[in-house]
Recover the amino acids of this structure.
């Protein structure tokens, strides 16, 4: 009798467990999109197709991140996707631009910009004996993009290639999930007084 009762209880528990699991599994019918997707005026193309599920459009996450300048990584240890937005991702894609003061003559020691570092945030960092700066410290108006190439163009200077897709170049470095720019590549040097940072032309 005990064996019968135990078997009945186990059967009920198994049934409940299977039912609970089934309730959490949702099946969707996906269709390959029959239309084009444009990002900032340029046709989006990827190895994996754009799909439509229940009237909504879905794009491959990694390739979409590359187009938008957003870092998308798979964390195998934590079994999750991690997305980090670079500051320069907010720039509208365009050819390396000439700023309004592109023809300005710059002198050694002249101040390019001055700002205060926020508590807990480092905008200028020394890595392997080189000083690096966050793109947001340079200013969005000096950042531009041509296809997968990201540039910084300072007044009176030639465009400096700082990122290809989501990867740094010889003029930059990845620090955690962010791209930092080598100051010497931009022809700048930093003076730090407390929480005040002054960037000067070399």
């Amino acid at each position: 009798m005990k064996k019968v009762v135990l078997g009945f209880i186990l059967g009920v528990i198994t049934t409940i467990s299977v039912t609970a699991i089934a309730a959490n599994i949702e099946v969707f019918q996906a269709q390959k999109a029959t239309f084009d997707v444009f990002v900032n005026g340029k046709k989006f193309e990827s190895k994996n197709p754009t799909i439509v599920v229940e009237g909504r459009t879905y794009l491959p996450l990694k390739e979409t991140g590359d187009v938008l300048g957003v870092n998308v990584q798979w964390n195998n240890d934590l079994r999750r996707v991690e997305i980090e937005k670079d500051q320069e991702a907010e720039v509208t894609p365009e050819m390396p631009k000439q700023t309004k003061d592109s023809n300005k003559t710059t002198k050694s020691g002249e101040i390019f910009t001055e700002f205060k570092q926020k508590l807990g945030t480092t905008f200028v960092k020394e890595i392997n004996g080189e000083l690096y700066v966050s793109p947001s410290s340079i200013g969005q108006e000096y950042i531009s993009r041509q296809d997968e190439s990201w540039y910084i163009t300072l007044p009176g200077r030639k465009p400096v290639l700082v990122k290809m897709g989501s990867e740094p170049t010889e003029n930059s470095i990845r620090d955690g999930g962010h791209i930092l720019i080598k100051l010497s590549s931009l022809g700048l040097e930093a003076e730090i007084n407390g929480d005040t940072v002054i960037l000067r032309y070399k």
